[in-house]
Amino acid sequence: MTVATLSLQGIACLRGGRLLFTGLDLDLAAGGCAQIAGPNGVGKSSLLRIVAGLLRPYAGTVRREGTVALTDELDALDRERTVRAALAFWARMDEAPPHAIDAALEDLGITHLAEIPVRMLSTGQRKRAALARTLAGGAPIWLLDEPANGLDAQAAATLGAIVERHQARGGIVLSASHTPLAWEQDVTLHLNASAYDIAEDDGAESTGGLAGTGSTSA
Amino acid sequence: MIGTLILRDLGRAFRSGGAWMPLAFLLLIAALFPFAVGPNATLLSQTGGGLLWIAALLASLMPIDRLIEPDRESGVIDQLVLRAHGEGTILLAKQVAHWLSFGPPLLIAALPAGALLRLEGDVLGTVMLGLLLGTPGLAALAILVAALTAGLRGSSALTGLLVLPLAVPILIFGAGALHFGGGSALKLVAACSLLLCVIAPIAGGAALRAGRE
């Protein structure tokens, strides 16, 4: 695994004419771990999608060393196939070794679900299957959107252990969650619900960089 | 990578049973048409070629709402883009998979359909050659429209409106080849087909990118 780094500089996010946050900075070295916290609709998921490269930031730059894996509310697993077959497709796309799937299923405690069709899974089981894709893919940078959603206490603790092991191997974990997570965070980014409508205020674009609604605490 | 994607899409098309629909559709039309216009062999052989073309065109459009939208909705497209696969590449793979899932079955179905419609051997040959050249273009068109309408509510009406004007040239030249003995008309089918095959991944990719913002 190459030495992974993730660096965000002055990120601003514009969604539907609303400036969600501006001037957001974050630096994570190998083994780093951060949580994006804040109420619903404040732009946590959008920030993860910007880091993943799925959304263009309104301003600022994202620099990544290493590949990313995203686990969000969309599991991207073929519903009519078995868990193992659905994960095998992604393992082939990730060029992961064949045994990576079995290892990931075992780590997440869902080996017994391997031959069950994805459509039969419960919310929490599906979440664990989606996490298994991230785990098996071997990407150093993990982006987890509400990773604890749908997981029971035991599964959340298991995920915590997996995340800590990933960090120990030099991986980076950036999670977005409105609730505290089961593992220690190096940095917590608090996004405030102070979004304003730039459509109504032409001056906002120029002053936006100074607003700095993202704050960090160690 | 792209091979894996094509195999997955192909597997999905056949497992869902959707891939057999165009084949059944073509045979159904060919079987019903003689009942509707009467068993007059001359009439059937004169109109049968054009009928096969219409059936093939409609058959290629049947699975349009299953081509892109389920993958967009379930996050598969996001995950592929995340792995640095461009939208154009993804759509090209889907285009190849879509053609493989309906093109060859349609060509096979054209043989019994031709017999049901009392087509002469050389007319059936021209129809099949035209379909071989034209169906890649129809597959590309289906992918393009599926990408343009992905994520829209009630897109099926829009789908028809978008597809028909773009599909008409292939239909005109393809059916025209039957009357003017192939040659130049088939070349024009191939030209239309090639144009759509090139445009679809580029324009559809741009539509998917815009839809994600």
Topology:
The complex is a heterodimer of chains A (218) and B (213).
Chain A: E1 5-15, E2 18-28, E3 33-37, H1 44-52, E4 59-65, E5 68-71, H2 83-93, H3 99-107, H4 123-137, E6 141-145, H5 153-168, E7 172-176, E8 187-191, E9 196-197, H6 204-211, E10 214-217
Helix pairs in contact in A: 2-4, 3-4
Chain B: H1 2-15, H2 20-37, H3 41-61, H4 64-67, H5 69-73, H6 76-82, H7 87-116, H8 121-149, H9 156-179, H10 184-212
Report a brief summary of the structure.
The complex is a heterodimer of chains A (218) and B (213). Chain A has 218 residues and is α/β, with parallel strands linked by helices.
Please explain how this structure is put together.
The complex is a heterodimer of chains A (218) and B (213). Chain A has helices at residues 44-52, 83-93, 99-107, 123-137, 153-168, 204-211; strands at 5-15, 18-28, 33-37, 59-65, 68-71, 141-145, 172-176, 187-191, 196-197, 214-217. By secondary structure, chain A is an alpha/beta fold. In chain A, strands 5-6-7-3-8-10 form a six-stranded mixed beta sheet, with helices on both faces. In chain A, strands 4-1-2-9 form a four-stranded antiparallel beta sheet, sandwiched between helices. In chain A, a hairpin with a 2-residue loop joins strand 1 and strand 2. The radius of gyration of chain A is 18 Å and the shape is globular. Chain A starts with a strand and ends with a strand. The model of chain A is unreliable at 195-218 (pLDDT under 50). Chain B has one domain (2-212). Helix content of chain B is 85%, strand content 0%. With 213 residues, chain B is mostly helical. Chain B has helices at residues 2-15, 20-37, 41-61, 64-67, 69-73, 76-82, 87-116, 121-149, 156-179, 184-212. In chain B, helix 3 (41-61) runs parallel beside helix 8 (121-149) and helix 3 packs antiparallel against helix 9.
How far apart are the termini of chain B? 26 Å
Major β-sheet profile of chain B: none
Q: How large, in whole angstroms, is the Cα Rg of chain B?
A: 18 Å
How many distinct folded domains of chain B? 1
H and E order of chain A = EEEHEEHHHEHEEEHE
Structural class of chain A: alpha/beta
- The amount of helix of chain A comes to 25-40%
